[in-house]
Specification:
The protein is an all-alpha fold. The protein has helices at residues 2-8, 11-26, 31-47, 56-71, 75-87, 93-133. The longest helix is centred in the last third of the chain and has 41 residues, at 93-133. It starts with a helix and ends in a 7-residue tail after the last helix.
Amino acid sequence: MYREAQAGGSAEQLRDAQVQLSYALAHSGRQENVGTAQRLAGELLAGAGAGEGEGDEARHLLYICAVADYRLGHYSAAREKLRRLVLLPGGHRQAQRLLDEVEDRIVKEGLLGAGLVGAGVLGVGLVLGALFGGGRGSRG
């Protein structure tokens, strides 16, 4: 469809094909495709001439950008876009589901990070305790 639209379709057909391509790429298993989707959807959104989230196509493109951000591990950027979509009149159920997933991922990564820091502090404490406290029992 994309090649057909590119070869001889109208500007509207080409744009529709680009939106569909960016959606497919955002859901691809290959990181480089997801990055391409993010760039393409961002360019289409910027070229729409409307504010982000205005109109069905702009909402769809903003959602595609959020999906790409999430799939690339840019959770804060994804959360920001998804919150904008959820707050728009009429809401956005897909965006709400993905927002819940993004926030769960942020919490899990925060807990994992805190656990790693805690384990590192505990490890340093044990090493220091062994080095400086090891000789105390023989002094007495």
